[in-house]
Amino acid sequence: MGEALALLRNDIDLEEGIIKVTKATEFYKSKPKTKTTKTYRGIRDIPIPEELLNYLKQYQKTAKNSLYLFPGHAGDPMGLSELNRIWRSANKRIKNWFKHKDNEKMIDHKFILTFRLLRHTYCTGLYDAGIDEVSAAELMGHDINIMRKVYTHLSNERKKKTIAKLETLYKEPQKSNVVDLKKESN
């Protein structure tokens, strides 16, 4: 949240496809204050996937004329009460989506949106995409140990694939490196 709210339009390089994270926002009595990132690793360049890049190009054409990427209603930094109002509205829309009859099968996946959830989801997505730990930690602004401990969660799909690989390993020895010792000793 802090890094996103501190982003200025010129922190987004639409030509190179890079987000430059150099600062964060914290709230003091609900008023936004710019500060440095939590650690030196927090200062980083993040590549923008093409789909997000296209969205940001459109967003910047239609967004308020402000220095901030996510400005408050008057174009200045967004305050805590405005952020909370927007966030409550988003969660209400999510809750209503799950209540809709077409989405009843998804009720087991119901969630409450938080900034931390977005960060966890991004990190897990990096892991599921096969991004190496060093690169993922750099993109997250963490060291590898913190990233492993706090953010990386195996998706259910990844667990299923792992189990399937293990099953193949022991059920189909001709396709694996398992040696049948009974056959070898004859």
Q: What tags apply to this protein structure?
A:
186 residues; mainly alpha; hpI Integrase, Chain A; 2 domains; 3-stranded antiparallel β-sheet; two-stranded antiparallel sheet; 8 helices; 5 strands; 48% helix; globular
What would your notes on this structure say?
- The longest helix is centred in the middle third of the chain and has 20 residues, at 80-99.
- 48% of the residues lie in helices and 11% in strands.
- A hairpin with a 2-residue loop joins strand 3 and strand 4.
- It starts with a helix and ends with a helix.
- By secondary structure, the protein is mainly alpha-helical.
- It has helices spanning 2-6, 50-62, 80-99, 115-128, 133-140, 144-151, 156-171, 181-185; strands at residues 12-13, 18-21, 24-28, 31-35, 44-47.
- The protein has eight helices and five strands.
- The strands form two sheets. The protein has a three-stranded antiparallel beta sheet, with no helix packed on it. The chain has a two-stranded antiparallel sheet with strand order 3-4.
- It folds into two domains: 1-78, Orthogonal Bundle (hpI Integrase, Chain A); 114-179, no CATH class.
Concise overview:
The protein has helices spanning 2-6, 50-62, 80-99, 115-128, 133-140, 144-151, 156-171, 181-185; strands at 12-13, 18-21, 24-28, 31-35, 44-47. The chain contains 8 helices and 5 strands; from the N terminus they run H-E-E-E-E-E-H-H-H-H-H-H-H.
Q: How are the SSEs placed, and which strands pair?
A:
Layout: H1 2-6, E1 12-13, E2 18-21, E3 24-28, E4 31-35, E5 44-47, H2 50-62, H3 80-99, H4 115-128, H5 133-140, H6 144-151, H7 156-171, H8 181-185
Antiparallel strand pairs: 1-2, 2-5, 3-4
